[in-house]
Amino acid sequence: MIGMQVAIDGPASAGKSTVAKLIAQKLGFTYIDTGAMYRACTFLARSHGLDYGDEAGILALVEQTGIELRNIAGQQHVLVGTRDISHEIRKPEISAKVSQVAALSGVRQKMVSLQRQMAGKVDVVMDGRDIGTTVLPDAQVKIFLVASARSRAQRRMLDLEEQGIKTTKTVAEIEADIAARDYKDSHRAISPLKKAVDAVEIDTTSMTIAEVVNKILRQIKKSQKKLQKRG
């Protein structure tokens, strides 16, 4: 038997990671940020001077260094080899290219395999763009977060400021970047961004983080009660 699986999908800056982390903490579940893994692949390509379409080269680097998600003092850190790249992968230059790398079929196959291994048989909260449709299609709880492009751009700007990452872009320019990424993610040939047919959609545009978390927790509790009745 697998553990409880919670899949949280949605476009860039819809609040997936923030919400998923809080839910995992509240329930004592394992949290897996799949987007960070694709960012790590993008970082490897950039740091080694590879073309972002060089699938074979990127996969070779992944095999050589490995990608690890490690919980340190309650925070998820991303490592390639022994190097912690948690901060570097959030920089605008990585955000600008991650969709291109994530669209490579070989890279997606490798990451999905790793993600399923990480999920294993534990209770897990996993966020990304194809969790409910591809990575964990049998997840008991599937959530699809949406929000207006402007609100997501404002959140992205705040996130960058809080992380001390400087950007010369305006909110309007970030909004345009997000819209472009939405298009790329939803139109890629392999595992495109889309809502699973059995996912609950939540528009977070006018909601606080606490409100979103509580709404998802209610869905999880409903699912847990159903499982208990069956068991």
Query: What is the averaged pLDDT score?
Result: 92
Strand adjacency order, main sheet: 2-6-1-7-8
Just name the CATH architecture. 3-Layer(aba) Sandwich
Shape call = globular
Task: Give the % helix.
Answer: 40-55%
Write the layout of secondary structure elements.
Elements (H helix, E strand, L loop, with lengths): L4 E5 L6 H12 L2 E4 H14 L7 H11 L1 E6 L2 E6 L2 E2 L7 H4 L2 H5 L2 H15 L4 E5 L2 H5 L5 E6 L2 H14 L8 H17 L12 E4 L5 H22 L1
Parallel strand pairs: 1-6, 1-7, 2-6, 7-8
Antiparallel strand pairs: 3-4, 4-5
Enzyme class: transferase
GO molecular function: kinase activity
Catalytic activity: dCMP + ATP = dCDP + ADP; CMP + ATP = CDP + ADP
Key descriptive features of the protein:
single chain, alpha/beta, 8 strands, globular
Question: What does this protein structure show overall?
Answer:
With 231 residues, the chain is of the alpha/beta class. It has a single domain, classed as Rossmann fold (3-Layer(aba) Sandwich). Helices cover 52% and strands 16% of the residues. It contains 10 helices and 8 strands. Helix 1 crosses helix 10 (209-230) and helix 2 crosses helix 3 (55-65). The chain is globular. This is Cytidylate kinase. ATP binds at residues 10-18. Belongs to the cytidylate kinase family. Type 1 subfamily. Its EC number is 2.7.4.25.
Brief synopsis:
This protein is of the alpha/beta class.
